[in-house]
Amino acid sequence: MTLMTADVVRFSPRNAFVLVIASTISALGFLWPFFYAGTDLPRTQIFFWLAITLALILIIAEVSNSRLDAKSVALLGVLAALIAALRPLGAGAVGIEPMWFLLILSARVFGPSFGFLLGMISVLVSALLTGGLGPWLGYQIFAAAWIGLLAGLLPGRKSLRGSREIVLLGIFAVLASELFGILMDLQFWPWALSTQTQLSYIPGGSIAENCAHFFTFHFLTAMAWDVPRAIFTTVLIVLAGNPVLSALRRTHARAAFLTPIEFSERVKLQKEV
């Protein structure tokens, strides 16, 4: 039997507008090297944390105005805690991070808005648990949020099942792993090297020149992380994707998200009258 799922956090036009604003603000923290005309490196961490604060306020306001019930909040907390617990398991290995497996599958079942929130909260909770606080955290938060958002937007969420869905999610896992690597390098690259190499960021340089330097730097230095991350996440999805998706969909169906809770038959009769 196919379980039809609705978004736990409804992806309304207003909700989409808020997510676009939040993503646009945070994207400035990643893309500034290609548009910054100054010759001195700016203090982008301060700007980025201000952007995160504003984005979180916008998202929280939208969620509070949406019909996000107690069951949805509880599920978000449980999954965020699981992902936060999974993240440190791969901390000592090169790119082996089991958290992406659960984030992608959860966003696939519960929708793009839920995936966005889950990515943000999971990384923040993980950083608080492991002491991973620093200027890189803002970048990690939005990178994970975007991956959750994109996973929820993949086609066929309510109809595609079986091996075809696993293939789709496996391909997405590879692309998401590479996207995360690119985003993490963007926050590191401008300060990583001196200005005297062919891989360095050039303050005030042209977009084409800096793009060429960045992608050369990325593919020469980061593939040792991105390839293992992609392989590990894809293997997990292939081996355990179907049972985990089925369990998440049963949870969604039985919890009846976004429907009122009836505490007794008497209450139901009173409402019918």
UniProtKB/TrEMBL annotation:
GO molecular function, one term: transmembrane transporter activity
Keyword presence, Transmembrane helix: yes
Transmembrane portions of the chain: 16-34, 46-64, 70-89, 101-130, 136-154, 166-184, 230-248
Keywords noted in UniProt: Membrane, Transmembrane, Transmembrane helix
Record protein name field: Unannotated protein
Species assigned in the record: freshwater metagenome
Phylogenetic classification of the source organism: unclassified sequences, metagenomes, ecological metagenomes
